[in-house]
Write a structure and sequence with these properties.
By secondary structure, this protein is of the alpha/beta class. It has three domains: 3-91, Chorismate mutase (Chorismate Mutase Domain, subunit A), CATH 1.20.59.10; 94-248, NAD(P)-binding Rossmann-like Domain (Rossmann fold, 3-Layer(aba) Sandwich), CATH 3.40.50.720; 253-359, Orthogonal Bundle (6-phosphogluconate dehydrogenase C-terminal fold), CATH 1.10.3660. It has helices at 3-37, 45-62, 66-92, 108-119, 158-171, 188-196, 228-236, 250-276, 282-286, 291-304, 308-316, 321-340, 344-359; strands at residues 99-103, 123-127, 137-138, 151-154, 176-179, 201-206, 219-223, 244-247. Strands 3-2-1-4-5-6-7-8 form an eight-stranded mixed β-sheet, sandwiched between helices. Strand 5, helix 6 and strand 6 form a beta-alpha-beta unit. Helix 2 packs antiparallel against helix 3. It is globular, with a radius of gyration of 25 Å. The termini are far apart. The mean pLDDT is 94.
Length: 362
């Protein structure tokens, strides 16, 4: 056969594969409906293990790399879970007939919540001076409209959110008010003013980015600011998903975020800054890079492409943020000192202590 003939055969097989995936997703839809009707959880880890093992075993019998078969099946399972989760959210939530306003809805997370609430049947409007939110009604300035919404979400930058919450307290909306900020201590006063005004208010932190479609394995943090019924109502928005719903205090949230976001962001900032100022070009470094370097470069690239203003707020506005930055500085200096002093014993002890600590996460 000629090369062109072989490629045409390959194209036919590719089309057959896509058609089979489409058939699989149609069956997934039926399975999802069956699970909802019979109150069966969306995710079945034992079934996933069976599917993956079966794929590896069958691949081995056919002379195919088991790792390739497993990778394909993992992607298909993820697509199946995403479809089933979205179906369950649409079927088991009660947003129909309710109105939601997202202040800052043209931003990335604002748009995510617009889609999420729309799936639940909410009539969603956004209030954002910026253009955006295709297909959504943008009222522009939320201060110029009646706040007769069942749900108001504040999805603005952290400093702006502090002002918005305070202004909302003056207007005393009757609907549930939720802020989704990455930090909570800068919002403490605004949240307290809403509570004092008798408003139904709570604070949450979705621990994922706007590109997220499947919430399985993701976390949503709920910070009760003194209105337990409001927090319970906010949780109801997520109970039909597979997200892990976590409760914590305002202070605990920011203390932990100083490490979860603050430390990890700072580490990557230092990494790509050191590279950028080294004078070495990334393509040249990648000609001899290691698995570790490539993995770190990938994460650093994601950080570098994100919103620098948000990242600065996370570093600068957290009352607990200085501790993690100081810890990073001290740790870096300790490594430098051990190497400069040719202290192999201390270096080994440092790595062993780190390994013991990281093993505790399992």
């Amino acid at each position: 056969m000629t090369l062109d003939q072989l490629r045409r055969r390959l194209t036919r097989i590719d089309r057959q594969l896509i058609a089979l995936v489409a058939d699989r997703q149609r069956i997934v839809t039926e399975i999802g409906a069956h699970k909802i009707q019979n109150a069966v959880p969306t995710r079945d880890y034992e079934r996933e293990r069976e599917v993956l093992k079966g794929a590896r075993d069958h691949a081995f019998e056919l002379g195919l790399e088991p790792e390739l078969a497993e990778a394909i099946m993992r992607q298909l399972i993820r697509a199946s879970l995403t479809q089933q989760e979205q179906t369950r959210v649409a079927a088991q939530t009660s947003g129909a007939g309710k109105r939601a306003l997202i202040i800052g809805g043209a931003g990335k997370m604002g748009r995510w919540f617009a889609e999420f609430l729309g799936t639940q049947g909410f009539d969603v409007e956004i209030a954002d001076p910026a253009a955006g939110g295709a297909g959504l009604s943008n009222v522009g300035d939320w201060r110029a409209v009646e706040l007769n919404y069942e749900l108001i979400i504040v999805a603005t930058p952290i400093k702006t959110s502090a002002d918005v919450l305070g202004e909302l307290a003056e207007r005393r909306p009757k609907g549930l008010v939720i802020d989704i900020g990455s930090l909570k201590t800068p919002l403490r006063d605004g949240l307290a003013r809403l509570v004092g005004a008798g408003c139904r208010v709570t604070s949450i932190h979705p621990m994922f980015g706007p590109e997220t479609r499947l919430l399985s394995g993701r976390h949503v943090v709920f910070v009760d600011v003194g209105v337990a019924a409001a927090t319970a109502e906010a949780r109801e928005l997520f109970v039909s998903t597979m997200a892990d719903l976590i409760d914590m205090t305002l202070e605990e949230h920011d203390r932990l975020i100083a490490y979860v976001l603050g430390l990890s962001h700072a580490l990557n900032l230092a990494f790509f800054t050191a590279l950028a100022e080294s004078g070495e070009l990334v393509p040249r470094l990648k000609t001899l890079s290691s698995t570790t370097f490539n993995a770190q470069l990938e994460v650093a690239s994601l950080v570098a492409s994100d919103n620098p203003h948000l990242y600065f707020e996370i570093q600068a506005l957290n009352e607990y943020g200085a501790a993690s930055l100081e810890a990073l500085s001290e740790a870096t200096e300790r490594v430098r000192r051990l190497v400069a002093q040719d202290d192999a014993t201390g270096f080994v002890e440092l790595m062993e202590a780190g390994r013991r600590y990281l093993e505790s996460r399992f």
